[in-house]
Design brief:
The protein has helices at about 5-10, 15-45, 55-90, 105-110, 115-130. By secondary structure, the chain is mainly alpha-helical. Helix 2 (about 15-45) runs antiparallel to helix 3. The longest helix is centred in the middle third of the chain and has 37 residues, at about 55-90. The relative contact order is 0.12. The structure holds zinc ion. Zinc ion binds near residues 95, 98, 100 and 116.
């Protein structure tokens, strides 16, 4: 009878997951850094002397898009940080809400996933409700 090894225990966890998470995190941080830097630069450059309203409006809507994208990146980076922490504690692959094992296929596609499909769906619905202010019921 062989003792169970680490490799056996972490069967469902892809062996390169730590590497994948870290390289994705590096990618995201540099993206986020670039966006913040670009914005700081454009804020400095655009001393609004003769900025006409059309330009200003366009710039604002562009910034809004960048914000939304950047926010997604920041959120993903946060999720990756959490996933790495859990990987270290040996909790990687467990749903943070219900504690059940997350489908390995889901983890392949989304290595930073911390919830099973069910809980993820629930949490997104909840967030959508809160986001629109409809969640006040109950
Ligand atoms: Zn769950």
């Amino acid at each position: 009878m062989a003792e169970p090894t680490d490799t056996l225990r972490s069967d469902a966890v892809p062996s390169d997951i730590g590497h994948r998470l870290r390289s994705r995190a590096a990618e995201l941080s540099s993206q986020i850094g670039a966006v913040l830097q670009a914005r700081a630069a454009s804020d400095e450059l655009s001393a609004p002397e003769v900025e006409d309203l059309g330009d200003a409006g366009q710039r604002l809507s562009q910034e809004a898009v960048v914000d939304a994208e950047n926010e997604r990146d920041v959120e993903e980076l946060r999720a990756i940080g959490l996933a790495l922490e859990r990987l270290q504690r040996g909790e990687y692959g467990e749903c943070i809400d219900c504690g059940l094992e997350i489908d390995p296929q889901r983890l392949q596609v989304q290595p930073a996933a911390v919830r099973c499909v069910d809980c993820q769906g629930r949490s997104e619905r909840l967030r959508a409700l809160v986001g629109t202010g409809v969640g006040a019921a109950d």
